Amino acid sequence: MKSAFIFTLLLLSLSCSKSSVDKTSDAFEFGTFYSMCIGNECHTTYSIRGNKLYRTTVNVSSKNKVTVKLSDSKYQTALVLKTGFPDAMLAKPNTTYGCPDCADGGGTFVRIIKNSDTLYWNYDNTIQNDRDPAFAYFRSIWPVMAELKK
């Protein structure tokens, strides 16, 4: 009986030490970044917070940062990326695929934020073919971002 009690306490303590970050996050962010860039969209972040979507653009040379709230229809467009986020990627947080922006090809990213925890995935835009499930997911971000820019 005593060993069953200790085993239960051990399970509870282990379950409490796991990250509480999941797809029911405080913020789900995705976007692109380009270091060797001139203009207002060198770094673009889309952030789903609650049931709203925001776009933040940064001009690298002037450090000018602009955030705007987007329409509900654009929120619905972006929501597919959050709801379709692969569990396989969630199981491998804080991962970088390739060498994002090393060859001036830019990078794409996803961040999931809950409380003070942030999980991230960075992707090298120049990767042409990869069998990892992340490849297909990151490629699905670009058409959504193109639609959000309209």
Task: Give a structural overview.
This protein is an alpha+beta fold and 150 residues long. It is built from 4 helices and 7 strands, in the order αββββααβββα. It has a 7-stranded mixed sheet with strand order 4-3-2-1-6-7-5. Strand 3 and strand 4 (65-69) form a beta hairpin. The longest helix is centred in the last third of the chain and has 17 residues, at 133-149. The relative contact order is 0.19. Residues 1-21 have low confidence and may be disordered.
Short summary:
This protein has 150 residues and is an alpha+beta fold. The chain has helices at 2-17, 72-83, 87-90, 133-149; strands at residues 27-33, 43-49, 52-58, 65-69, 95-97, 107-114, 117-124.
How many distinct beta strands? 7
Q: What overall form do the CA principal axes indicate?
A: globular
- Kindly report the oligomeric state of this protein: single chain
Q: How large a portion of the residues is in β-strands, by DSSP E? A: 25-35%
Q: How would you state the average pLDDT, rounded?
A: 81
- SS field, number of helical segments: 4
Stretches where pLDDT is under 50 for at least 5 consecutive residues are: 1-21
Question: What helical percentage do the residues reach?
Answer: 25-40%
The N- and C-terminal alpha carbons lie at a distance of: 64 Å
- Strands of the largest sheet, in order across it? 4-3-2-1-6-7-5
What integer value in Å does the Rg equal?
A: 18 Å
| Biggest sheet layout | 7 strands, mixed
SSE class: alpha+beta
Q: What order do the helices and strands follow?
A: HEEEEHHEEEH
